Amino acid sequence: MERELSVVGKRLPRIDAPAKVTGEAKYTVDIKLPGMLFGKVLRSPYAHAMILKIDKSKAEKLPGVEAVITSEDIPVKLFNSGLTDLLVPEEIAKNDPRDQYVLSNKARFVGDAIAAVAARDRKVAEAALDLIEVEYKALPAVFDVVEAMKPGAPKIHDFANGNIARHISFPGAIGDIEKGFQEADVMIEETFNTTKQLHCPLEPSACIASFDSIGRLTVWSPTQLLYLARHKIADIFDIPEGKIRWITPFVGGSFGNALTLRAEPICIALARKTRKPVKLEYSSEEQFIATQSRQPFTIAVKMGVKNDGAITALQGKLTANSGAYYSLSGTTTNVCMAMFATLYRCPNVSVEADIVYTNIPISGGYRGYGNPQAMWALEQVVDVAARRVGMDPVEFRLKNYRRAGDPGWTASLPIESCALEECIKLGMDKIGWREKMGGTKEGVKRRGIGMAIQRHVSGTQPMQMTHSNIMIKMNVDGSADLMVSGCEMGQGMFGVLAQIAAEELGLQIGKIHVVNGDTDETMFDDGQHASRTTYVIGNAIIETARQVKQQLLERASKILATRVDDMYVRDGQIYVRGDLENKISVEDITRRATYNFEGQGRNIAGKCSYVPKGNPPPYSAVFAEVEVDINNGATKLLKIVFAHDIGRAINPTNVEGQLEGGVMHGIGYALTEEYMVNGNNGVVESDSFTNYKIPSTLDMPNVEVIIVEQPTPSGPFGAKSVGECGLNAVAPAIANAIYDATGARVRDLRITPEKILEELSANIL
Amino acid sequence: MSKEIARFTINGRECELLIEPCTSLLEVLRDHLELTGTKSSCGVGECGSCTVLIDNKPQLSCLTLAITVQGKNIVTIEGLASGNNLHPIQQAFVDCGAVQCGFCTPGMILTAKALLDDNPNPSRDEVKEALSGNLCRCTGYVKIVDAVLAAAQIMKKGGA
Ligand code: FES
Ligand code: FES
Asked: Whose CA is nearest to atom 1 of ligand 1?
């Protein structure tokens, strides 16, 4: 019999919401320490330049300035600013170049950090930057991957010939690709380009660092991976790790932006130099030009298909623009390749990638992490293929998709569960697929619909090590402290994890207090990445809560003279099965356990380390309806229907919120967000919300989310993940809808009226 | 730099400060008065995070010089709840799931308050129009608009 749930599955308000609607919630930027200095960073105006000399004497003399630092004042240790290389063994991690210093001794993009200042107030710090004299020798620069790989192109890093940082062959390649092409009745060859999307969290990067009198460092920063950030900082600055306390306050959005070190290393270097607390807040412009963003890819696809719709071969040749440094380019490219290669059944698959340095800002990890780039190409190719063999694109996908039991993103882990068919069925009905497919073919305003699917992960296992470590301690009043490392950046982990804890402990949600993100109080966790929190941490919490429950029941069993197995906890009461009158409250047990005068005293508590064994993938089906004006190419997005295979929604409101937000990023990726670098000097022109347009209320169509719940065996209460899924397949669904409406196939993001018109005129010729 | 006196009412209390004339209201609120509920994101009038009410009108505090609000009545997010009772718009944001990271939330709520004070019965499109200058990178706006419409209903029934 399925257990009746009293907290999980309920649309409970988020537990962090009251603090956020009253202004009480504290973010890193809101924290102030006594005697705190303000940091500022001097950034290179050149895309590529030698630094011949830095004279900081004038800046140092400015009253109020406490330190001016350059690359000479900081540890000479190369590192990778991405943090997840710590999750693989060194023999694998070392394939990813370590190519960054805290402050650069050669400028490799406009915005590269060259020097930094700490001063008593912000304005003095800013004024001091103007007094630092840097003598640069400008070098030729290159911004485009094709140019960068040509012989004679400017060399950005000495070790990277042809500016190729790394070549990767997808390890899951199978079959014989040439044989697969020969077996095909129809061949499709298409090339796609994606853009460097910016995360645009509203809270810009910030950090506060403070050393105490015995040299212990406390850091406040909005990182997604606090233990990994601490580990990397300990290594860079050669500080014993136990001498660093890392705290993550509320985070004002991240979306992957904080999977890398951002303001932290420079802030810590300034605090180390001055021995005073330092706060470094990036300006909005710095956030736009100097933090990392989504890798742009060129993806050349060759697909062979039989007349009956079976895919015989799939080949991808990828080129990733890493920007000036490597950061997370390797893992992002690996995820891109895996998602591209494993969404569909196909006996012959090969994917190769080159990761290329250019003199533009660094590419990091962004929600979806390679999957949106892969889907932009693959989900359009599938649309093309279906039409070429005369099949409905939905039927084509249903015939070919990898489903439960098939190998997942790695061959070693079969797909545990899949509710894609249900998602597709419900989505088709909602959008009116059968009635609307084919669109209106007359008049100036043409309507069309398109769809795309995606599959994602619930963590990075088995590719990376991952474990969650949880403590739950009971208070005397029958409430519980849930100690979990992590980052509440808006995704709702506090509420979701509290709901899981409350359900398993048999407590009301108000009895759970989340203690979060402080290395002095919470144990190791690899952090918030790969949509892992609900699945991995949720399972860890269940295991810990069971230990706590066992202790509660053992004590209750003596008092109620009943076997442990014959009791259960619900709403803070311990009941004997079948006898509702025979009960005792959890509070009574915890009080008697702590204030125990019979020599049996104990703080009831649990602790567990959990290593996930599964990785059930969530699937989604996205449907888009558009209206395109064929005279001017303007696209109006009328509707998005998004059906998601969540396993179990721990909190349906939260699941919808994650998907609606993800869809919005997908709409921006497709239609409004354009990253622009000046081709002459490498200056990032998309440097503000005016010059880089994220969707506003007026850009959002009607978005309908459908939650499909088919509990997955290994999930906490059957849950799979959601965080990144919302945006992965939105852009190709829109592109497919535009094709359906007009016959224009736009292959390069962002979709602009000009590109649509160009395709339309090419079709007529 | 010579300093000037700024006098205004903030969340119902008189306030008098000696400030440099170029100081923005946002800086005064966050740095001098420690009212950090008002958020700073772009700092140049593009995002709406820093919205406060000045004489009941939503204004961007990053673009407002503090000395220009002499004698005016300023309400920030900290001034909206009465005691432990949330304002109906705050409550609706909590109940409808309109809050994610929360960084846009104070500005959104104050903009919504000005709208509903002015137009107690807005359509969905009117809400979207009124909030179009407040960017949110988390929610996709669906639940924010739902919350404002829900709050309108509650306020009509005399909830505020
Ligand atoms: S901070 Fe004022 S509008 Fe963005
Ligand atoms: S809730 Fe994060 S920006 Fe709106």
From this structure: B43
Could you tell me the residue ranges of all domains in chain B?
4-79, 88-159
pLDDT tens-digit readout, A85-106: 999 999 999 999 999 999 999 9
B21 contacts chain A (CB < 8 A): no
What is the 8-class DSSP label of residue A692? Answer: S
Q: How far is the CA of B64 from the centre of ligand 1 (A)?
A: 10
Q: Within 10 A of A388 (CB to CB), how many other CB atoms are there?
A: 17
Q: Is A263 within 8 Å of A280 (Cβ atoms)?
A: yes
CB hemisphere CA count around A70 (13 angstroms):
18
The confidence score (pLDDT) of residue A765 equals 60
Domain B88-159, what fold?
Answer: DNA polymerase; domain 1 (1.10.150)
User: Is the Cβ atom of B142 under 6 angstroms away from ligand 1?
Assistant: no
Q: Which residues of B touch A15 (CB under 8 A)?
A: none
| A contacts of B36 (beta carbons < 8 Å) | 23, 26, 29-30
Ligand 1 neighbour B91 (Cβ under 6 A): no
* Residue whose token pair is 């000399």: A53
What ligand has the least distance to the C-alpha of B45? Answer: 1
Q: Across residues B92-109, what is the average pLDDT?
A: 98
pTM of the model: 0.97
Shortest CB distance from A689 goes to which of B127, B135, B145? B135
Q: Report pLDDT digits (tens) over B120-130.
A: 999 999 999 99
CA distance B116 to B110: 10
Backbone angles phi, psi at A150, to 5 degrees: -70, 150
CATH, domain A31-139+201-254+258-289, list 3.30.390.50, 3.90.1170.50, 1.20.1250.20, 3.40.50.300: 3.90.1170.50
Q: What are the start and end residues of each CATH 3.90.1170.50 domain in chain A?
A: 31-139+201-254+258-289
Is A660 in contact with B46 (Cβ distance < 8 A)?
A: no
Is the reported ipTM for this assembly greater than 0.95? Answer: yes
